[in-house]
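Example 3.
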Amino acid sequence: MGYYDLDDILADSAEIPCKFLHDIPGLGYLENNPGGTIHVNTQLKLPLWLARVLAIIDASSASDDVGNADIFNTEQQFTPFLNMLTPETFTNKVINAIKTDPISLDLHSINPYFYALAIKWIELFSDKDLAEIVSDLLLQRSQVINAHANSTTISYNNNSNSTSSTGNNNTTNNNHALFTLTLDEFEKKIYKEANDSYKDIKKWIYQY
Amino acid sequence: MYGDLANKLIIEAKRTEQLTQKYLDAALNSDNGGIRNDFNGNETIIPMYNDELIYNILKEVNQLKQNTEYLQHIKQEEEETKDQLKDVLSGHSNDKIRKCQYFVNLLCLERNKRCLMAYQRMRSDIIDKMVWNGLIGSNNMYNNGSKRSGYNELSHYEQEYMSQYKNLIDEMNSESELWSSIEIMGNMNPPSDIFIDIRVLKDIGEIQTEYGTFNFVKDSQFYVRQSDVERLIQQGYVQKI
């Protein structure tokens, strides 16, 4: 999760639907209208790295004139430049799909950085419900990932021991390939690591 | 939209990282002195430095810088008029607008910076690994313009970085008392046999070893001690069979 982390950078580029709360002239290039004005209640998709900050900084310029900041100003509600709306990744449709069948879900097609984005989203909105759903999702899926990682190792070992009998393993390998396609980037990392450790253990056992 | 180019760069970087990881895994798993000799010339460990995209991103950064300067200029002017007119109300809404414009600009700049730095970091990480794994051979390898070395794919600054990094390791190896007795650049895998069969890929000439003199002519085969020819394997002059 460092500054140079490519995955984190890519997760940050996820597009979030946003609603502007102010008229802002000169920002029309955000909606392909250079030089134009963005009007109140305009909805457009902005990448998370842009939307996040605009949604948490206060638009009322209190810094300049603290002197004449009256009671109204301090009592006024905190108004950011824009509001972030729920992105497609976390719409009810997806959440329901997660609840019904977490295992056969094609997470990669929903968002290749599902977990990274979920963590950011939960952090921003302190969304406990989503946090529970996502951690449960990971728990359920990691068991399947583990099983897959283990069984590929066995077929891998068979292949290397007897190169002649590769025909039968093709179907199982195909299944695994299909399965890994449905994983998001974080799960792929888990899968690879699990697979590598199983391989290492096998290697260590068979060397004697 | 600002930041789109940088995104493209990061997607490319991600692909590179995955491919390199695969390659390095394969190299480390083979017992061939950490080197794959069946590596064909078309593959490269590190893809070409993306001059064009980087240049375009820098152009975008310059544009953003100009925008920022312009905004600052406007703000100053507004403040002057505000003092004169004491028009606090209009000043309020203008401030808000300027603040938003300024922030969008700033965030785009930050984003571009992060993407550029991450790209460079990814590449320098690969270069480090290449140096440590001996994928970059001795100096005359560069002059041969060998495709395998990946040296031609580096930008000028990266080439400089690489040679200095290499010097640093060499220095550490030769000067420090602790390390001088250990060959830190050596292969981490224990050798399975002391003696190995090798095939000569390029004419080298006579080589003196403890076990006599060998005349390494192209396409000839020898049974030699692995530690004697380790360096030659890394440089790609001979191949382990």
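The interface with chain B takes residues 3-7, 9-10, 13, 22-27, 29-30, 32, 47, 49-50, 53-54, 57, 59-61, 64-65, 68, 81 of chain A (CB under 8 Å). Chain A is about 55% helix and 10% strand.
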